[in-house]
Each structure stands twice: as structure tokens, then as C-alpha cells.
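Thread: Modeling a multi-component assembly for a lab meeting

Hi all, long-time lurker, first post. My supervisor asked me to bring a structural picture of a complex we are working on to next week's group meeting, and I have zero experience with this. I have the sequence lines for every component (938 residues in total). Could someone generate the structure of the whole assembly? Inputs are pasted exactly as I received them:
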Amino acid sequence: MALVLKQPSVLPGFGLTLGFALFYFSLIVLIPLSGLVVKTTTLTWEQFWHTVTEPRAIASYQLTFGASFLGALINGFFGSVVAWVLVRYRFPGRSIVDALVDLPFALPTAVAGIALTAIYSSNGWIGRYLEPLGLKVAFTPLGVLVALTFIGLPFVVRTVQPVLQDLDMEVEEAATTLGANRWQTFRAVIVPELWPALLTGMAMAFARSVGEYGSVIFIAGNMPLKSEITPLLIMTKLEQYDYAGATALGVVMLVVSFILALMINLIQWWSGRRHTAR
Amino acid sequence: MSIQVDHVTKRFGNFTVLNDVSLHAKAGELIALLGPSGCGKTTLLRILAGLERPDQGRILLHDIEVTDQRITDRRVGFVFQHYALFRHMTVTENVAFGLSVLPKAQRPSPDKIQKKVDELLSLVQMRAMADRYPNQLSGGQRQRVALARALAVEPKLLLLDEPFGALDAKVRKELRRWLRRLHDELHITSILVTHDQEEALEAADRIVVLNQGHIEQTGTPEEVYENPATPFVYQFLGDVNVFHGRMSQDETVHEEADRPAPAEGDASDEHEVTFVRPHDLELSRSRTTPTQLEATVRFVITAGSRVRLELLSKDSPQIISVELTKDRYRELRLQQGDVVFVHPRQLQVFKMPGPSSM
Amino acid sequence: MSTEIAARVRNEEWKASLTSESALVRWVLIVAALGYLTLFLFIPLAAVFTEALKNGLESYFASFTDPDALAAIRLTFLAASLAVPLNLVFGIAAAWAIAKFEFVGKQILITLIDIPLAVSPVISGLIYVLLFGAQGWVGPWLAEHDIKIIFALPGIVLATTFVTVPFIARELIPLMQSQGREEEEAALTLGASGWQTFTRVTLPNIKWSLLYGVILCNARAMGEFGAVSVVSGHIRGLTNTLPLHVEILYNEYNAVGAFAVASLLTLLAIVTLIAKTIIERKTASSRTAHDPVWSAQPGSPS
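Re: Modeling a multi-component assembly
Sure thing. I ran the full set together rather than chain by chain. Output:
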């Protein structure tokens, strides 16, 4: 214990709490996850490579990552606008809107899935207007994009909001006294502060979208090579008892998740350093 | 309860915070641990409380070794710098806390506890706020509650960690006098950590001056102020003018150019330095002895109880601070630009390491 | 008095106009924001309820009294009532260790705890199938002893627990870190034992965030779809949770039934959001009150 603790502490319970936490976490999370990685080693490299590069898998990557990326971009832009409006302006119903922003986070994914499908299908509230225009949303990749945008909505708003709230008004006032107009002030003073939070939010939205399952499979169409996302492909392989295939793809997704989580941490660390360096 | 600190050393990582510190406090004394930030005084206090453990050395409370004793067994009252009041409890509940966590066998009845709390709140003049929450109190009020809370468990030793550090100057002065009166009433051995020399000089029976983990001097406030043992103590307690070379009341030594060159093997890695307090310098308009320093008046500040002058020495770029009584200043009728002659009434010479730099 | 207030408001508005956009820009932004939110948030929310009530109230309530629906409700509650307490104990233990002590690898632990959030739900289920499924590590041993984990309750509880591990810890850790250790140290100097310190000093300070963490953890546990879908086996009346039941109904073209059940889960989500708002208000007000900058008033008696 003396090796682990940097400073011996008078507060009790270190051994007990850390020990239990590590034990529980290893049991529930770490060991099962490593099981996945270990299982992959039972595959030969050829098998692994073949599975993760077959056309169906590649198509699913394109759809999953492509739609997630686009969704993150859309959320990046509109999420910032929403955050700005919520922090800077007052309008009736503002606090209700603010609370509802978290809905995609709290709502079960299956509920989101069927709701979005109902709306965008050909006789749905929105679908019925889009279809005559040639825009088919439900059961197409476009539907996947819509679903992933819904899912990622809170992430950018909630990372940008606190930064906006903590912005020092005095800096903006200083810029104004020096003659900057509103747009110049925005670009020179506000945007640099927001960048890290925006990037973090977008990365988080992206990471969440990549792994998303429930809200997508209803609206997606799920046609192999056309509108099939990677998590669904994994699910299908499992149902066919192709454990090896599912495992291989699972490892790919796991690695991507870790890389994204690492990136997010890096962005946060980098932005933290920028601030202290000042 | 008497306290004995025996050769205590404490390290945090590579940094030695306390270096072989020893001190002794008699029962009923109020001792101030005085020193700049980072000198180790708070660490020493926390070691006494049991919140830290020394790497080497022993602590004895009333001649019993307690170095390894747990905090909960030590019966020491600790007042934190930022009060550490329990934010979700009322003033009464805060003060009663120590009594309410006693083992059943020792715990007084709720009535007795309430009575004790009332007594203590009256003592610290917080009776009217008994049902308030900490966030409804000012800093000074919170500190008094923290003190009452620490006293509730009838500690044999009271430790105060910069208790008034977070308060305004005026509130600090009031509370420090009030603490002294309280101590005179209760006679609990108390150790007060502070970086404010005025506070230490006013409130303590004895002062322990700490610097970079070791004790520079221990003594009564008079001893420490009038007879500082080291340059650090001199400079830390009050303003000081530092003159290179040895001055005496009758003779002033000029630059090294006038001195014979030191022979080989001399202690030339030491030089002498004279310390004079601003109020110990005498000024006159004309030269009365050959040893006075000639200087020009740069600034005069008359606002305040005394007059402060800043002089520029003629022979060197040194700035000399002088404090005069208003009467003396009026006698001299000094103005900016006037030439004066400076002479020390009282001084102290120290040997400092390193060659003289002039 | 009201003219004073009016004057102050005018002053505030004038000051604000120095650093804010023209009215036109403001309105464009508001419209854009609300339009985006309407499209992606309000309409889906409204759709759940309108679709559910399409065939009237009777049909709506009938969806819940169906035996399969009742079984799904029971299973969902059961899984949540096991997953949430386990994660609660974990969350408190981890937050205590992280917030009150300095140790090697602390930052790594904090990062690790977020793992389940980063992992796709399908993977979360997959790993348990690989462990306990028929072809899994422990599979054959389980089959020998006739213990069913996958396609049975234990598997569902495990997957649900995995997915919701971080929630309570993530609520508690930053809060307890910002509260520091001083109050606990003070309690110890006053003679309190470790347990007394925790229950009487720490717990009351974290109670609101703890409550929200439990509510959020519960909502996510009850609503988990992907992970449970993998481990469940979809056996009607036996291993279907509410979200899975929604899927089944929908795939059978029983849209109204599906939305009716979905509306229950949506109400749960809305309750979670309300709880969050209330709790945020409570912790914000206590934070500003304790901030020395806020509570210092010039001229107040010491």
C-alpha cells in the first residue's frame, strides 16, 4: 500500500475502497473485454484479415464512419448555435429547451429508433413531404445520418455550454473598447476559447455514433453492402454462430473506440495546458 | 499539557519540509509558529494533530509519546485555515459534532450536549446564530464557530492553522485580541501558525520563527524583536535597512578599497552586514561626526502616525528608509532634495556567507 | 421603487448591447437553433406519444396489461434493481478512493471508468457471450452444471451492469474532488470514526449528485437495448426487457403497441431530465453560497 499511495493519509478506507473498486471493475469490465481480445488470438491472421476486409465489412465501415462523421459535423455546427442561444439569449421556454437537450442521452435507443422511423417513413410527418421531392430518408443511408445526428446532439451542446458560460465578459468588452465589431470580437476572442470544447464534443459525438445500434437499426434498412452498419453486421454474425467473425469485427470496433477515447483525452489535456500556459 | 517535538524531519517527495526540528512548549502557553509560506509551519502543526506522520523524530504530549497514535485518539482541537465547517449542518450541529460521535459509553445526554453547545456559543459570542448554516455567516463568524467546535471536545491542546488568514485586516486585529483574551481565560496549551508577524508579536507568549524547515529563533516577542538571532529573523519581523560593511555607532567603514587586502586563507567567503531599523536612524541637517552617511531626501510620506522618508545615499545607489516622529520631522523641516546626515542609534552586525558585493 | 428597478434594467440592457449582436443576427440564431432542435428533438418526442395514442386510450392501456408486456416490465425492473445498487457501491467506493487520496495510476483509473461509455453496446453484449455462451470460455463448464447465464436473467443483468457502470462514479468523482478533504479531516480531529465521518459528513454533502446518478443509472439500465439484445435470446415472456419488447411489437407491425410501451420509457427519460434540472439548481445554489467571493459582504459584522 505504501508503494501505491503517494502520501500516507489519515483518512480511512483507502485499501477497502480502491480494492473493491478495482476488483469489481476488473470482474465486470476488464476481464470480459480482455476475453474478446484473447478470443481473437484463436484466429489466424489470415482469417482475421479476411473477415475484417470482406466487402460487406468495408461497406459497413464506410456507412458507419461516414455517417458518424457527417453527423458530428452537423452537430458541431448546430450544437454550437444551440449552446450560444441557450447561454446568451433569453426567450420563453428556455429552461425547458435546455433540459430537453439531454433527451437523446436519457432516452432508450430503441424508442428513438422507432420514433425517427415513424417520422421519416413515407407516410410520416416529415417523410411525406420529403418523398415527393425525391428524398427518401427511411431505410436508406440518409436515415442512418438522421439517427446519428439525433444521438450526438447533446454532446456538442453540453461541452460548449460550460465554456460559453465561463467566458469572461470583460475580455469581450475590452475588444469592443479597442474598436472591434461584433464579428471580429467573435472570431478573435470567442472562437479560440471554444475550439477545444467544440472538438471534444464532436469527437464524443463521433465516438458514440460509431457504436450506436438501437436507434439506427429501425430506420436503416439494413441491406448488406448498402445500408448496414457495423454493429448490425456483428449482431448478424452472432446470430449465425459465426463467433470468430463477430469477434474479429468486435476487436476492430474496440480498437477504434479506444483510439477515439484517447484522442478525446488528448484534446482535453491539450486544452488544459493551453489554459495554464496563459 | 506540555508538548515536546523531538528532532522531527518530514519530506514530501524530494523536498524536505521540516529538517530536524525540535521544540518544547509548557502547559498553558500560547506559542506562535511564525514564518513565510513554505517554511514548514503548517506541516509541523498537522504532524502535532496527527494529520501527517513525521519521517523521523518523536512527538510527546504531556510526556507520552504519541507519534503513532491515531488522530481520533489524540484529543487535539484543530482549527483549519478555511474553517472546514460542515456545510450542511447548523452552527449548533457543528459545535455538537465532536460530542455526538463519542462512543455511547462516554457520550453525554442530548440535554447536556445542548447545554455545552450553548455555553460555548456564548463564549464565542455566536449564540444568536445558533440555527444558521455556515454559508449564511461571514468569515469571522465562521472562524469563531470553528473554534467553538474544536473546544467542545475539551482538548488538551489547541492547534490553529492561520486561523485569521482569510479575513480583512480589521477583523483580523479584533479576532486576534479576542483569541488572546480567550486563551487567558481557558489556559489551554495552544499553538498558532501564522505568517503575520504582527499577529505573532501581539498574541503569543513565545514565538518560534521558522524558515525553510528549520527553527531560526525561539523566544518571547520582545526577545525575538529586539535581539534577533539571525538576519532572517531581523528582516522578517519588521522593516530593516541593510548596510554592507560594518557600521558602528561611532565609526563607519567605507568600501573595501580602504581596507587592507585579505591575506590568503582568510575567511574571505564571509562579509559583515549591518542591520538598522528605520526608526533607529537619526537625521541631522549638518554633519556632526565624520562617520555619518550623507544622503538626499527622495520621498516624504507624512500620512500616518509617523513620518516615513526615503533617502538616497551619496556614496552608493542605496535607498535608506527612515522613520521619524512627527515632532522630530517638524523640527528638521525636511523637503525633497534636502541633504541630510544619517547616524544609527542602534544596530546589529551579522556575518553573512559569500564575498562582499559592492 | 419600480422606477429604480426600471432604471437598473435599462442600464443592464445598455451594457449588454455593447457586447451583443444586432437584433437581426440574434433572431436568426434563435430560429436556427430552435429549428434544428424541433427537427431532431421535439418532433421525435411528440411522435412517440401521438403514435401511442393513435387508437385511443383503451388500446394504449391494453398494451401494458398484455402478459408479455407485464413479463417485460418485471424483467426490466429486476435487472435494474440488481445493476443499479451494484454500480452504486462501486461508484461510491471509486469516488472515495479517487477524491480523498493521492495514488499512482489515479488518472488512469479515472479514464478507465469511462470505457463502457466508449464501447458499442453490441460489443458490451458480445463479450459476455464469448465468456459464458455455449462456445465461450466458461460455456462448457456452465452447461455441465446446468447454469444458464446467456439467454437468461444473469446475462441480462451482467450486460446491463456493464453498460451502466460509469454513471454514478462520473457524477460523484468531480463533486467529491472539488469538495476536498478538509471536512473529513476536521471530523477525524473531533474524534469521529471512519464510518461516522462518511455517513455524517461526506454523504450529506453528495446526496443530490448521488440521487441524480442513481436516477440516470436506472434510466439507462432500463432503457438498454443493444447489449441486452445480444445476450437475451429474445424469448418472449422470459428474456425480453421493455426495450426488446418494443422491438418485437414494432417488427410485428403493431406500431401502436410498440409506441405505447415506448411512451413508458420516454416518461422515465423525462422524469430523469426533470430530476437533473432540479438537482442542478440545488447544487448551483449551494456552490455560490459557499464561495467566499460570493458570500463576503463589505461591512458585515465579524
